[in-house]
Write a structure and sequence with these properties.
- By secondary structure, the protein is an alpha/beta fold.
- The chain has one domain: P-loop containing nucleotide triphosphate hydrolases (Rossmann fold), CATH 3.40.50.300.
- 26% of the residues lie in helices and 27% in strands.
- Strand 6 and strand 7 form a beta hairpin.
- Helix 1 packs across helix 4.
- The longest helix has 14 residues.
């Protein structure tokens, strides 16, 4: 598990970018946190790290549920906030977005952990005083573990002061 603190949206996006730069095909990233914690900002960073053209246009897919962006790897961005039944993923054909040759970032995954791949990175974003965010990142599985190991090595040095367990 890794934990770090960012000071503002720009740094939160930078951490997402560092993850996107080392992302591998089949990576699933589950983003947890309350409204306004920075889940979509983090996803913009992942998109930038994947070389998605104009990542500033990445937006929350709350009403569309699923957006796709082309970069070095295809980025599937899911927002499951409006869904409540794990069977909804299969009904929507979203199982194709999970794994394979793409990267999938999921906002509001809490009700779906039972049907999501076990090989994934889970990112917990918490609001801290000011515009800071405490970001806790954990990996389970071979793909996620390899990506997290690479992420730790390439993260900007100013974040190295944080805890890496």
């Amino acid at each position: 598990m890794s934990q770090l603190t960012t000071c503002g949206a720009e740094e939160t996006e930078e951490v997402g970018e560092a993850l996107g730069r080392v992302a591998a095909a089949g990576l699933v990233v589950a983003l947890q946190g309350p409204l306004g914690a920075g889940k979509t900002v983090f996803t913009k960073g992942v998109a930038r790290g994947l070389d998605v053209p104009a990542p500033r246009y990445v937006s929350s897919p709350t009403f569309t549920i699923h957006k796709v962006y082309q970069g070095r790897l295809t980025l599937h961005h899911l927002d499951l906030y409006r869904l409540s039944n794990p069977g909804d993923l299969e009904d929507l054909g979203l199982d194709d977005a999970l794994g394979g040759s793409s990267v999938c970032v999921i906002e509001w995954p809490d009700s779906f952990f039972g049907v999501l791949p076990q090989d994934r990175i889970t990112v917990h974003l918490a609001v801290a005083p000011g515009d800071s965010r405490v970001i806790r990142i954990e990996a389970s599985g071979a793909i996620a573990g390899g990506v997290l190991a690479s992420f730790r090595k390439t993260l900007p040095k100013r974040f190295a002061r944080e805890e890496w367990r």
